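To: structure desk
From: M.T.
Subject: fold request, one chain
Message: Could you run this one when you get a chance? Sequence is below, nothing fancy, just the single chain.
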Amino acid sequence: MTHPCIIQGGMGAGISAGRLARAVSMAGQLGVVSGTALDSILARRLQQGDPEGHMRRALAHFPIPAVAQRILAKYYLPGGKTDSTAFLPLPLYTATPDPHLLELTVLGNFAEVWLAKEGHAGVVGVNYLEKIQLPLLPCLYGAMLAGVDYVLVGAGIPREIPGVLDALTEHQEVSIKLHVEGAPADAEFRTRFAPSKLFPGELPPLRRPHFLAIIASVTLALALAKKATGQVDGFVIEGPTAGGHNAPPRGHLQLNERGEPLYGPRDEVDLDKIKALGLPFWLAGGYADPLRVRQALDAGGAGVQVGTAFALCRESGLEDQLKSTLLQQVETGEVEIFTDPLASPTGFPFKVAQLEDTLSDHAAYAARPRVCNLGYLRTTYLTPTGELGYRCAGEPVAAFLQKGGTLEETEGRKCLCNGLLANIGLPQQRPGGYREKPLVTLGEEVEAVRQLLGEGRKSYTAAEVIDYLLAEG
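Reply: Done. Structure tokens follow.
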């Protein structure tokens, strides 16, 4: 089949939401919803009063109305909460999650994909991080209930996801292997999801979406092509200049004079070996340029994935003031992106835009009371009693140490979960008056943004990004 040439990156929690993905898809390319934290995003938008009615409109189309009504009854506040009032806390994910949390997760993913697909015949994708394992199965199911066309998964080895997609089309129980720190090599732990147990009764027919693995090495591409549990339909090959989480450099970690990871020849992907697999591939990281799009096609690729240019467009979910500041910095040449080897509790390098009064600011970071109250990036570990425990290097240091972590692991770690939700205007109000601050991620290549702004312009649309990228035909 013919795949879209341009994939819009699945950037940050709520940056690439339904509105942006819909705009890209309506322009004939692959709009992608970020699947991160959509349970929290749905609950918080409803508590803000859902002023434009998008969440309620999507939930009205959920195939099991009683479930949607339960979520609305718990979280929807007509008129919205006050800024000084905290959002309701959600249960944290474990290997055996609370059924209410499962429902909320399914609905959150359904709603965002449904909004992305609303009113047009274009294709829509959803992007997940394999490292966020515990909510992944209900996330996939919710997106499939909304008719998602592509599933993209990176930040790990998503070997089992193709088979999960096959099984979910039949509403079968599915499971994936959990990474458990400290577990014996021969031990296996799994997290499971059974659609028919959560939603008893007749369920709608589903179709299997295309699966694209986001990778950074030939080795991983070969492993997935040969050993995945089902069909891999293509690859997104992501370079180290792309925003968000980056694959760590191969070999011993070395840092440049700024303290950023150094990438070298070992991190370059041999495209001839990828091409030999016979599957479509897209190139990402520094490809937001019409000449680079042409180079990707000439190299045998199906196209490119672009993030940063879409992250700053009019339809992105980034909070308006943050977006305006970044656009101004791009225009004046003052934008600064730092590949932080420590910020993410996952251990993956994470690109951070350096902005005042955000967690990239050392003073703002130091002033934040540590807490792990969302838990998406928690690590599962085996306790001395043989049970599963959960810890995050961004949680209070004493708690992390008590759970068997080391002091070194906590140094420089930032709360991505709360920071990313603050990026889209959903900051938590903490006891004592502290309000969570943003932590903005962006790719290194911003020349496309500068070109799109042109002379005297303050913004641009997703459709203009696509026109620019395809300007060379």
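Reply (cont.): The CA atoms of residues 114 and 146 lie 5 Å apart. Let me know if you need anything else for the meeting.
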